[in-house]
Amino acid sequence: MKPEEFVNKQEEKYGNFGIMYPPSTDKEALNALTEHFLGKDWYTANPSNSEQVNTEIVALILDKTQPKKWYQRLFNI
């Protein structure tokens, strides 16, 4: 999802806030980040509650976006 698409979606839902961005709930923001970094079809098969899934999502995003040395990328460490 592109930034403009997310902002337009939020404006449709909450209205135009002038020069400020429209609001979004924590779940809407986390879903947008999950879709962007982990893919539209990402899901978890772990039998856990929503708070644990949120932690899993954040951990996966942080792991994916951290700079790695060449040998860490090579061996997927």
State the main characteristics.
mainly alpha, 77 residues, 4 helices, single chain, 0% strand
Can you describe this structure?
The protein has 77 residues and is mainly alpha-helical. It has one domain (3-75). The protein has four helices and no strands. Helix 2 crosses helix 3. The longest helix is centred in the last third of the chain and has 16 residues, at 50-65. The protein is extended. The mean pLDDT is 88.
Alpha carbon gap, first and last residue: 28 Å
Number of helices: 4
Strand content: under 5%
Number of domains: 1
Mean pLDDT: 88
- Rg is 16 Å
Tell me roughly what share of residues is in helical segments: 55-70%
- Tell me the overall shape: extended
**Sheet with the most strands?**
none
Structural class: mainly alpha
Give the number of DSSP strands.
0
Order of helices and strands: HHHH
Q: Could you list the spans in which at least 5 consecutive residues all have pLDDT below 50?
A: none
